[in-house]
Each structure stands twice: as structure tokens, then as C-alpha cells.
Specification:
The complex is a heterodimer of chains A (290) and B (277). Chain A has 290 residues and is mostly helical. Chain A is built from 13 helices and no strands. The chains are: A mainly alpha (290), B mainly alpha (277).
Chain lengths: 290, 277
Amino acid sequence: MAGAITAHLSEEASVRPRHINESGFVRFLLISIALLFLTLMVILPLITVFYEGLKKGWDVYVAALTDSDAKSALKLTLIVSLIAIPLNTVFGIMAAWAITKFRFRGRNFLITLIDLPFAVSPVISGLIYVLLFGAQGFFGPWLDDHGIQIVFALPGIVLATVFVTFPFVARELIPLMDAQGVAEEEAAVSLGAKGFKLFWHVTLPNIKWGLLYGIILCNARAMGEFGAVSVISGHIRGETNTLPLHIEILYNEYQFSASFAVASLLVMLAVVTLVAKKLIEWRGSKWQSK
Amino acid sequence: MKGSAIRRVLPGFGLSLGYTIFYLSVIVLIPLSGVFIKTAGMGWADFWHTVWNTRVIAAYKVSFLTALSAAGINAVFGLLIAWVLVRYKFPGKSIIDSLVDLPFALPTAVAGIALTTIYAQNGLIGSKLEPLGIKVAFTPLGITIALVFIGLPFVVRTVQPILQDLEKDTEEAAVMLGARRWRTFTRIILPEIAPALLTGFALAFARGVGEYGSVVFISGNMPLRTEITPLLIMSKLEQFDYAGATAIALVMLVFSFIALLIINVLQSRISKRTTSA
């Protein structure tokens, strides 16, 4: 679903005769409503996070971020992303290659299946792994006998994160590679290019911006996932708490300033993601117009 | 693979498709099928009793109605924002365009605590609404606001490209024939963008029904009043009632699959429309 809603808009509305446009007053009114709505719904929450985080002063803010539980939550979040992103990136490239470079039966059905994790509630995304690997789950007793822990431990958190970020890279690459067709690759094959070299030298340069964008989106979701991870992590402080879970615990303990201070880290991540998106769109359109 | 009618010049079909299906099965299909297997182990009467009692029905209602109203609000304001972004020029437009994506990039828990703080009784907006007798936080209205935040980009980003590509000829012809601006909009523009708007609405609705992180803080989680379905699954898990949680999850999954199917049909219609145009 995310792929369908990524718009790359660079062109301005073309110049049109005056009488076809709305009157200046209507235009002003519509722009005002749009800005007011976005201010209330989007900008205000952003400001609130920093305001609440810094309300009790800089020292409280820094203390919340340098707290040992916060540090281990940050570390866990980074580790989980560093495992989940490469897995889904390799999958995304493989899936996009199979789907866009070849025609086979069930191709559209496969695309729908790849989209499936977007349609599943985050809570269910966590639940399915508890059913498989939890103490009462299908593989629970076997795992227990062999001393392997998945639920309430790092592997479970990684699995849930991989599930919720599953379609991101594939969803960015499929429309892009579909539009580019197979002509360049076929030409390269006829000139003797083979296997991985073909992908690395011919396909990758064409898709690198889309791929990077997919990875950035995947990362933002991986670091921010709350529902799925909440089900499977067990909320063990300093051990299985990711940043979003740490925020929840602080908030429920009425440590609002500390909670918002940690939240501000994730807001910065979101802002960096949006800036990166803008830059990639800009580079991409520049590159395309060459 | 060799016997296929289409000549395959490019390498890696078997490997890439094989890996795709393997990874898809291991991460998505097999774990999801666990929900069906687990529920099949319950008796029919047991299952029915779990997924259809007063508390669960109330949760379905809250989830359904709040997601529906939020998607409706987003359809109106999302269309308006897409329109403004495509048709008008104003200072800061590029920043506004980027901000529309914020709900995609911002972790849901962060959105949840920020919105709760703003709309709580002593919050920036909550305190202004309190004297008017409007309570937002810890009511269905609060849940709706959280879902409006979550769903906004879905509508804007589905409608925006269609609005961008809209042929202006018919619009101009309508003006020539003496149609007023509003009439041109409802008769010419709206029918053109209706499938995209409906897709955006459906995407926002589907996301809203399953949303957890942003809602759990602002809803107050009162059974029968502000308890959403994902939260009900969560509280069953906390009581180690795995069968109960799974049965409700199954109902939600079936609902989501139907929604996904409808969305796919809508989207293929849009792409047919744009390619035939």
C-alpha cells in the first residue's frame, strides 16, 4: 500500500487562464483551511513533544536521554533495525526482480501477498509469533527443551519488526523496475553480462534512489514500531525494551518530561526521514531529467 | 521453469522467485496460518461465545465507527490539502508537502502521547474545549482524532497524483459552456478523482481499524466505551487467554483481507483509468 501512495511531485501546476481558476478569496480560504488543519493535526504534536520534553529544563532532558535504561533501549532499537533492514532489503530486491523482469502465473496474487503485512493490525503481527514460539505455542516446548528463547527476547522482537516492515523495500522497487522494463538488462545479457554483475552494473544504478527511499521508510517504521513489539517483548527493562516501549513505560509512570525527552529522539528520526525523502526525490528527478 | 512458453533471456528467475516465496512463507504465511490453526482447535460454540459477546461487540463498534469517521474526515480534508498542494502556489508549500508524510514517519506511540497531552483536560486544546462541554481525551472523539492523524497521508498521497495528471480540457470546456466553478468541481473533477479518493478512504479506514500505538494512550481503554479491538486482543494476551486473543484476531484478519481485496480492485481500476486515458 505504501508504494501506491508515494507521489513524486515536482512539476508546478501549469499556467492557466485566469477565469478558470477560483477567485482570490476562495483560494485564500482553501489554503487557510489546509494550513490550519495541518497545524492542528501535525505541527502542534511535533512542537508539543519538544515543549514537554524541555519543560523541566535542559538537565532533566539530558538526564532522561543518558539514563541507562534509555541507553539500552536505544541500543536494542538500533540492533533490531540493523538486522531487520538488510533482511527485508535482500527480499525486496529478489521479489522485485522476479516480479518485474519475468511474467508468470500468479504474479498479481504474489504482489497482494507481499502487501499483506500492511493490512494486519500490529497487535496481530506480534501475536502470530507468540502463537508459534511462545511457551504454549506450536514450537514452544521444543524450543524450551533446547534452551532457545524467541518470545520475550531479541529474536522475537526482530521477527515482529521484520513482519511489519516486510513490504516496504519491495513496494518501492516493484513500480520503479516495472516502469524501467527489461531492455537494458537484455542488451547487457546479449553483450555477455552475467548473473550478479548484470544486477550490480546495469539494474542497481537505475534503482538506487528508489531502493534508498525504501530502506529509509523501512528504517523509520522499524525503529518506531510499537504494537507488534509490545506484544512480543515482555517489557523487560534494560533488556527487551525498545525506544517506543521505553517511552510508554515512562509515560505510564507519570515521568512525562523524561517520556517526551526520549520521544523527541524519535521525532528527530522522523524529521531526518522526511528530509531524506525530499533530497532523494530531488536527486531522482534531477537524475531522470538528464 | 524451462518449459515455459516465454523465452527468458534474463538470469535468476528460479533463484529470485524461489527466495521470494520461501521468505514470504517463513515470515508471513506460516505465522499467519497459526491464527487459523489455533482457532480451529476451539469448539464452534466456544469460538462464537468469544467473538460475539457484549464487550467484544462494543469493541468492534468503537473500532469500526471511529475508523469510519476518521476516514471520512480525512477524505474531506485530505482532498482539500491535495487540491491546495497541486493547484495553488504559496510560500512554504514544499515544507507543507513534506509534513503530510509525517504520520508515516513518526512512531505511533509518540503521536499518541503528544495528542493525549494536547487534548487532555489540562492540555492546550483540551482546556479550551472543556468549558464548552466537549471532552476529547479518553472518549471516542479522542480515538477519532488519533486515527485522523494516522490516516491523513493515505488520502492525500492517493489523490494528489491523480489530481496532478487530470486533463484540464474538460474542465475548461465546462467553463466555456458557462458552468460555475463549484459545478465544474462536482460534475467534472469529482467523478474523475472519485476512485482515488475512495481508495485513500479505504486505506485510511483499514489502517484505522487495526491501529494500536497512537490510540492506546488517548482512548483511556474503558471496556464497553473506549476499548478498541486490538486493545481487547492485547488485554486477553496479558491474561494468558491465547485462544480468546487468537479468535478475535481471526475476525480482524478476515475483515482486513476483505478490505485489502476491495482496495486492490479499486487500485487496479484507477490504473486502468490512467493507462487508458
